[in-house]
Design brief:
By secondary structure, this protein is mostly beta strands. The chain contains 1 helix and 35 strands. Strands 1, 22, 23, 24, 25, 26, 27, 28, 29, 30 and 31 form an 11-stranded antiparallel beta sheet that branches. Strands 5, 6, 7, 8, 9, 10, 11, 12, 13 and 14 form a 10-stranded antiparallel beta sheet that branches. Strands 2, 3, 4, 15, 16, 17 and 18 form a 7-stranded antiparallel beta sheet that branches. The chain is globular, with a radius of gyration of 27 Å. The protein starts with a helix and ends with a strand.
Length: 417
């Protein structure tokens, strides 16, 4: 069966390559406008240990990458009842503000009747406010408006409103930080996070809460880049096997591009090997993302590379498959490229393919489907490279269901003015 597939496919390869026309991937669209980047989130309560959530974010609201000036979001919740953290009503909101005098991201979280550790910490009202601002004085952050009312910790009432980052020891539990605030700059993105109450469990305790657990009550986060050329985005992964919305395998070693870029740093995710016999066997997978955003330009680049590729019982092999997607914007417009994308020693049905595979080369695999090589998907603001894209449309001996799709070395990059 496999030998006959190789023979039939080999005959189709020359025709496919002859018909595949080169596609110009470097193209430009006019436009030199700028925009502002507003980011924010707020929630009432949240608990977790390590990377595992114990209770979800209540009354969660967010200001996303594409928010424009005037955006307003809000959420409410009547009450929340959890074993070690509960409250009355919760109200959260977020605003993206821009006028002649100020550009600002503002988020607020208000929690009434807060109760943590089964009554060991209580407050009649906890309010967190976070604002990241650009005005005549430059960039700044502010937690003005944040407050805690009627706070009682282990039976003792706090007579004075806690200042920023007030730490209180919790005997046989750990410690709590009241009015917790931390600010910073990531890739020139100014931000401020405020937690009304933040409990850290560092000891074995009477409630048997796992050491390492954390409880947050009233959280507000804001971030701002007041003038940027564009927001960026994208992702890269080694492989994905799926049927409709149902994932059968992958996406492997996936990386995402933050909308404010990475500050020029390379974000990387690696995986030693991926096997899904008899459909495919893959060696090391490495995916990267790097991006920069300034007032004059924006660049997003993602890559995915796979070593020692073997598909369909050896019907398709390669020493290396690498996808590179790049999107950029400057004063002359938006440009896209897949320069650097490559196959090394690609063999299909026993035939060694050349180093220069034209974009969107299609080869019919009898009894399986259409094998796409260096597939290019374009939109006005993004480019996606799928070095191997195999929609399966027939029953086959490789345990790939008809209707499923296998994609290898996928990279997508986006710039949105």
């Amino acid at each position: 069966m496999r030998r006959s597939i190789r023979a039939t496919v080999s005959a189709a390869i020359s025709t496919a390559l002859a018909l595949a026309l080169p596609i110009s991937l470097a193209s430009r669209a006019e436009g030199a406008s700028t925009r502002s980047l507003f980011l924010g989130e707020a929630f009432g309560s949240y608990s977790f240990v390590g990377e595992t959530a114990m209770t979800g974010k209540t009354a969660y609201t967010t200001i996303g990458c594409q928010a424009r000036p005037g955006t307003h979001v809000e959420n409410t919740m009547g009450s929340n009842s959890e074993e070690n953290m509960n409250s009355g009503s919760v109200n959260t909101s977020g605003d993206a503000i821009k006028n002649a005098s100020v550009t600002k991201t503002l988020t607020t979280s208000v929690v009434n009747r807060a109760n943590l550790l089964q009554g060991r910490i209580t407050a009649s009202r906890v309010k967190a406010v976070s604002a990241t601002i650009r005005d005549a004085g430059g960039m700044r952050t502010s937690a003005a408006g944040s407050s805690l009312t009627n706070v009682v910790v282990f039976g003792e009432t706090l007579e004075v409103a806690p200042g920023p980052n007030t730490r209180i020891t919790l005997p046989r539990f750990g410690y709590a930080v009241l009015n917790e605030q931390f600010t910073g700059n990531v890739g020139s993105l100014e931000f401020l996070a405020v937690n009304g109450i933040h409990v850290y469990i560092t000891e074995m305790n009477p409630l048997r809460i796992p050491v390492g657990s954390q409880f947050v009550m009233a959280h507000a986060y804001s971030a701002l880049k007041p003038t940027i050329a564009a927001i960026v985005g994208g992702q890269a992964y080694g492989h994905k096997l799926f049927e409709g919305s149902r994932i059968q395998s992958g996406p492997s070693a996936i990386v995402y591009m933050p909308c404010a870029g990475t500050g020029g740093k390379v974000v990387e995710n690696d995986l030693a090997a991926v096997t899904h016999p008899p459909a495919f066997q893959l060696g090391e997978v490495k995916d990267t993302a790097t991006g920069t955003v300034t007032s004059k330009s924006a660049t997003s680049q993602t890559t995915s590379s796979i070593e020692s590729v073997s598909l369909l019982g050896g019907l398709v092999t390669a020493d290396l498959v690498k996808a590179v997607a790049r999107a950029s914007k400057d004063g002359s417009g938006v440009a896209f490229s897949d320069a650097g994308s490559q196959f090394v020693n690609l063999v299909v049905a026993g035939r060694l393919m050349g180093q220069r595979i034209a974009p969107n080369t299609a080869i019919q695999l009898p009894g399986i489907g259409t094998l796409w090589l260096r597939r290019v998907i374009r939109t006005p603001y993004s480019i996606e490279i799928r070095m191997i894209d195999l929609p399966v449309n027939q029953d086959n001996p490789f345990e790939l269901k008809p209707g499923s799709k296998l994609q290898l070395a996928v990279a997508r990059a986006l710039v949105l003015p």
